[in-house]
Write a structure and sequence with these properties.
Blueprint: H1 4-40, E1 45-51, E2 57-61, H2 78-90, E3 96-100, E4 112-115, H3 118-124, H4 135-138, H5 146-159, H6 173-179
Parallel strand pairs: 1-3
Antiparallel strand pairs: 1-2, 3-4
Length: 197
Amino acid sequence: MDRAAPFLRAAAATSVVLAVLLAVRLGLDRRAGERAATQTGGGTICFEVVGASADPGLRCVARPSADEAAPLAPCRTPAARARLELLARRCDWRGRRLVLAPARAGGPCVPRLEPLPAALRVALGVPLDPDTVTRAELEALPGVGVGTARSIVETRERLGASFRWDAVPGVGSRRAARLAPLLRRGPAVPPECVGPH
């Protein structure tokens, strides 16, 4: 009789319980975000905070504000606060990562927005830009493997602005219909939203 079997069964049962609890928690958080969005009349905006924050991690809110970042030193300066307020007023935080860190080692904190990793964007329902998406990011999409991602990128490079899904080898009309909402061009990003200034 294998002595590790009871331990493995206990570990598997614990993993299942934790997964269920996490799913319940995410469902409750999502419902709370949807209620907040419904009350304010807008959509829920999900973004991630990393760096010098009192509460880093993923957030979903009706409208981001500078207070959402809860900055700590070295980001608790008038310049960092002003930059956060500018980002909150002018920039779309949806599917972005708010980085609270110095632009260079030892320098002052310059809050900046960066795109979230593709897999997290897809999980949050934030479309990827078909003009800039990389092959590795395409592989994060459901039903897209290495070969299909390579075909999409090669076809996009070959056709440029006249890119069409039906021109991609191996992508039929059904798969194209599933991918279209996940790959959508967004509005142009204002220059102040793409990095430190």
